[in-house]
Specification:
Elements: E1 2-11, E2 14-20, E3 23-24, E4 29-33, H1 40-47, E5 55-60, E6 63-65, H2 69-72, E7 76-79, H3 91-101, H4 110-120, H5 136-148, E8 154-158, H6 166-181, E9 185-190, H7 193-199, E10 202-207, E11 210-216, H8 217-220, E12 223-230, H9 234-241, E13 245-249, E14 252-256, H10 260-269, E15 276-281, H11 284-292
Parallel strand pairs: 4-9, 4-10, 7-8, 8-9
Antiparallel strand pairs: 1-2, 1-3, 1-5, 5-6, 10-11, 12-14, 12-15, 13-14
Helix pairs in contact: 3-4, 4-5
Bound molecules: adenosine-5'-triphosphate.
Length: 301
């Protein structure tokens, strides 16, 4: 769906995007994760043909960008920083203008497409209110509605939850998950670890313009060969397992063991009370720390 090869964008002495080989596959919810200033917005602009690469190649929906932008762009829904709208017009009127101005999209179906898009982002109820009375979250959702107008098979979104409160963030997450399950591939940039961890199936981690990791979230979060155990009988577990307890914090233990069910059975057979047990997995924060040498101080948890 999106492939780049050696993609590089230089602004003077700053390498905003540095030799990136991106691979976004059909059906992905792809999170492009990196701290502020790491090149995410530049990447999104490159993909949309809004800025030209210094070197490298871009293919979106099987076509070269920017050479074939005119054919590619109408098939993409995009949201780039701070979606613009006429403040004195309603959301519906803004979408009608946008729809009429853009290429493609039949006039006959315009009204129903606008209604669908407003419905999808939860704005159909606000009806005739001018956009100037909208909250930041509502504006962001209107931007998303605009991205959905053409019922695109690919969404490219730059920090789509910027400025939203926790409830708004959850609504957008549910919306994007639903669209994805119905067949839309989603590419989004974010500096929020938790957002990417909760929403995405595939992750690219960018550090100072370079793509340092690109993999399925499930692979990145593979089991570590350790089991986490919570038990009021921690001291007995330490004695029983002799050397396999690698970490202890009060009632919480980390045990070198691959199978939580078997470990649970062994503990219970000894009369040890187990209040919680499960496989230990790496968090996305662990992965970010490993590959960049800096974690939550630069990428928000
Ligand atoms: N038009 C420009 N002219 C000069 N330098 C630029 C320009 N756009 C971006 N840069 C620089 O390129 C680097 C990457 O910026 P970019 O905005 O792509 O990062 P980002 O990850 O999107 O950050 P943020 O989350 O803060 O938007 C930064 O050092 C930035 O200062």
């Amino acid at each position: 769906m999106i492939v780049t090869r050696g993609l590089t964008k230089r602004y003077g002495r700053v390498l905003a995007v540095d030799g990136v080989d991106l691979d976004v596959r059909e059906g992905d919810r792809y999170g492009f994760l990196g701290p502020n200033g790491s090149g995410k917005t530049t990447m999104v602009r490159l993909l949309l043909g809004l800025v030209y690469a210094t070197s490298g190649e871009i293919e979106v929906l099987g076509e070269r960008v920017p050479a074939r932008s005119r054919s590619v762009l109408p098939r993409i829904g995009a949201l780039v920083e701070g979606p613009a709208a006429y403040p004195h017009l309603s959301g519906r009127q803004n979408l009608a203008l946008l729809d009429a101005a853009g290429p493609g999209g039949s006039r006959r179906t315009r009204k129903s497409r606008i209604e669908d898009a407003l419905e999808q982002v939860g704005l159909s109820g606000v009806d005739r209110r001018p956009v100037r009375t909208y909250s930041l979250g509502m504006r962001q959702r209107l931007g998303l509605a605009a991205a959905l107008l053409r019922r695109p098979s690919l969404l490219i979104l730059d920090e789509p939850t910027n400025g939203l409160d926790p409830r708004g963030i959850r609504e957008i997450r549910d919306l994007l998950t639903g669209l994805n399950e119905a067949g839309t591939t989603v590419f989004l940039s974010s500096h929020l670890l938790a957002e990417v961890e909760q929403l995405c199936t595939r992750v690219g981690i960018v550090d100072r313009g370079r793509l340092v990791v690109q993999d399925d979230l499930a692979t990145l979060r593979a089991p570590t060969g350790h089991v986490e155990v919570a038990t009021p009988d921690a001291a007995r577990v330490v004695a029983m397992l002799d050397g396999r307890v690698v970490d202890r914090d009060g009632e919480r233990l980390v045990v070198r063991h691959a199978d939580p069910a078997a470990l649970n059975a062994a503990l219970v057979a000894e009369g040890i009370r187990v209040s919680a047990i499960g496989t230990r997995r790496r968090t996305l924060e662990d992965v970010v720390l490993e590959v960049t040498g800096h974690g939550s101080d630069r990428v928000a948890p």
